[in-house]
Amino acid sequence: MKKVLLSLTLALFAVSASFAQNAKDNATPGTTSTLKAEDMAFTTDSHDFGVVSEGPAAECEFHFKNTGKEPIVLQRVQPSCGCTTPSYSKDPVLPGKEGIIKASYNTSGRPGAFTKTITVVSNAGTKVLTLKGQVEKAPTSSVPENTSMLKTN
Fold it and tell me: Where residue 100 sits, what CATH number does that domain have?
């Protein structure tokens, strides 16, 4: 009985120590930043692909310049859905330098108009970028589709 009680006590201490460690890791640093969302100056915050063919991915780049006095660190770049894939550098963008966020929209199986957003979260604030366009349905094969009930090999 004493061994069971001792084991449960040790397990309780181990679990409480792990929770205390996680709380300390999630704490926000006490430093304040002078950066504002305007310090991440995008040349444009939206891109219109126009009419694109179904199949290949539609890709574009969003360029921004750090007009602040501190480095900008992109913490998270999150698309509004799984059909849009952003990529960006994890390195800080120094004052006066330019950063790039690349976006790719998967057009396969998505004919019709689309409007998607990418939310950029950084130490300068949050910015929402917009992608839009029209996906033109790919033409069907030139060979007629077999609609008979007989199977052909």
Answer: 2.60.40.10
